[in-house]
Design goal:
With 115 residues, this protein is mainly beta. The protein is globular and about 40 Å long.
């Protein structure tokens, strides 16, 4: 089973940018969808972005136009470029991969947006 590990989180001021990375322990299956969720303690986890096997992308309305999801198969990595960050983007961001065996999750990386 593939293992996922996120990195790139941190503390930034409103309006700044971060790029999150999700590195897989092996090549992501060609037919697998991958993406990102985020969760604030005490709240329900929410979908942020998704990229399908054909490269098609889907975004939550709250991040559309600011976030970009991409994949680099040679590096076994999924990225989430986050621009124009807002305080409400503060959360733990988790990546996932929907392989045929089921959904696999990373451990999460903290993003904090504060002045």
């Amino acid at each position: 089973q593939v293992r996922l590990m996120e990195s790139g989180g941190g503390l930034v001021q409103p309006g700044e940018s971060l790029r999150l990375s999700c590195v897989a322990s092996r090549s992501i299956e060609s037919g697998a969808s991958t993406g990102w969720y985020r969760q604030v303690p005490g709240k329900q986890i929410d979908s942020v972005a998704r990229i399908g096997s054909g490269g098609e992308t889907t975004y939550a309305d709250s991040v559309k136009g600011r976030f970009t999801i991409s994949r680099d198969n040679a590096k076994n990595t999924v990225y989430l470029q986050m621009n124009s960050l807002k305080p409400e983007d503060t959360a733990v961001y988790l990546c996932f991969a929907d392989e045929r065996v089921g959904r696999v999750w990373g451990r999460g990386t903290q993003v904090t947006v504060s002045s």
